[in-house]
Amino acid sequence: MTTWTEYLTTDSPQSRRQARLGQLYRQWLAFRRNRLAVIGLGIVVALLLVAAFAPLIAPFDPLAQNLDRRLMPPSAVNWFGTDSLGRDIFSRIVHGARVTLVIVIMVVIMVGPVGLLIGATSGYLGGWVDRALMRVTDIFLAFPRLVLALAFVAALGPGLENAVIAIAITAWPPYARVARAETLIIRQQDYIAAVRLQGASQWRIVWKHVVPLCLPSLIVRTTLDMAGIILTAAGLGFLGLGAQPPIPEWGAMISAGREQIFDQWWVATFPGVAICIVALGFNLLGDGLRDVMDAR
User: Fold this and answer.
1) CA distance 214 to 231
2) Which residues are paired to 82 by β-bridges?
3) For residue 274, which of 53, 47, 78, 79 has the smallest C-alpha distance?
4) What is the pTM of this model?
5) pLDDT tens readout for residues 92-109
């Protein structure tokens, strides 16, 4: 009787499904050997769980004010202390995980397909299309992301939705560059020539044959880029251009506590630690995925 492990690790798969499952299983084994990557995965999973069960984890209402307990230090009642309005910082950090996760997911949903399609189209068609698209990409890459995001938010107005749009507008160029580099290699392959000889249109080749092969590199790039998205969102929140009060956003919480940083250090420190841990988790996870999914 064949065991599940033997089914996944066989060198002679009997079906395409078995071959794909076996490849995923081998990638998981390689990923599991990287301890730092596993730690990163644990941090990301913890973020997802905290965001999903925030009302059950947070002991207090993150918006409830209690001026009698303002600027209280960490204690058994308020684990991370309270802010200038008496709100529990731990509860606000827990609920702020939802805001951070929403920003990351929305930005990735917006920039991933756009960058992938622009890069694949540019790399496959070449010529004036490639030059035009890459010059636009270079213009966006010439400016620091935070500075460009500040310009767009200043034009659109402060707010969580506008911050997501501004970050997405500034985040797509690296995805396009990665997709273009992969496409330049893929379009030279024999099977692409065979599909072209069978009469497939250029758009069908790009969408059906080029884009799927670019996905592994884009997944790795997306995971590595999530830390930058979080830092950019926190920067906008710190400057008052992201999520607006009383929404518990980590960058805005640091901004609110910067005036008490020496006397009431916990107000700004714990949100900053949360940002550092989550950004580190995504970076470690991205490094592990790159080692596993990059064939080179």
Assistant:
1) 26
2) 88
3) 47
4) 0.84
5) 999 999 998 888 888 888
